[in-house]
């Protein structure tokens, strides 16, 4: 029978989901079964973030990330490493340290080198930096942008350290609200072009694609194309399409259409690597905790029934 991964493979793309030890070893076996049957790429939802993996300076905590990597390898799933340098889920020793450029450079280099070296050859893509832009395309305020006085310097440091640690990994810069033409997407394109012209080893732009039902921009596809051109490769890295809950039947059908639109935008680009969906079931999505009254964003409902969105993804990959 057709699955998401067979449909994706027919177009030379992958389709990914997220997991963590709570899913791999928890009592909810259905989540794990669907992950294995339907998907061929995986990101750790939380286990590879800086607070999880290096909670104190030089003190690394590998158990959860190891669990995800071992599970993926045993099941022939490729891995997107998420994420090395991010202002959020950043331990307070980094966020609140009193750094000079030189000491923070060492901290970034040590984190990137140590994590990537442990999983060298096992992680196909890394989100080397995540969510560094504000909505206008300028530098988001973070310990990194403050200490270095902008983005270029710390992004360069992180990508150079990443390339040196695992030359075979595809290195990505990842962000959200790159779903339409505008200041943020333009800021991303300009930064990537500028740094690549200076030899910084950025291979790929990740567009998270946290979308809203009925509001997928008419410029979604052309914007993804411009990201792909700027970096050489791109990927949709965290796709979900949320609605006001409870979602109506017309909402479900619009969501199906919207999933097709998003997936097809990647399929139509030869250098779009694939699509990761940020979860499986509506009952385990991050959205209701962050957007009150919204959710229902994923292809399976809270009881693991396939929603029309599932068929929408299949259709986006050219299946029926
Ligand atoms: O680990 C603690 C636990 O000790 C504590 O008891 C519990 C109580 O709230 O919280 C746990 O931390 C939670 C963490 O997930 C791990 O489960 C945080 O509260 C919760 O906020 C955190 O949410 C994650 C969120 O990133 C944090 O920024 C979501 O699961 C995860 O799906 C979400 O993923 C992000 C991507 O990494 C980047 N792009 C946006 C996307 C959605 O926000």
Automatic annotation (TrEMBL):
* Coiled coil segments of this chain: none
Cellular compartments per GO CC: extracellular region
Q: Indicate the enzyme's highest-level EC class.
A: hydrolase
One example of the protein's molecular function in GO is:
endo-1,4-beta-xylanase activity
Q: Where are the transmembrane segments?
A: none
- Record keywords: Signal included? yes
Q: Which residues form the GH10 domain?
A: 1-316
- Keywords in alphabetical order, please: Carbohydrate metabolism, Glycosidase, Hydrolase, Polysaccharide degradation, Signal
What's the catalysed reaction?
Answer: Endohydrolysis of (1->4)-beta-D-xylosidic linkages in xylans
Q: What is its EC number?
A: 3.2.1.8
Q: Which GO terms describe its biological process?
A: polysaccharide catabolic process
Which family is it part of? Belongs to the glycosyl hydrolase 10 (cellulase F) family.
Q: What is this protein called?
A: Beta-xylanase
* Phylogenetic classification of the source organism: Eukaryota, Fungi, Fungi incertae sedis, Chytridiomycota, Chytridiomycota incertae sedis
Full-length numbering of the shown residues:
18 to 337 of 411
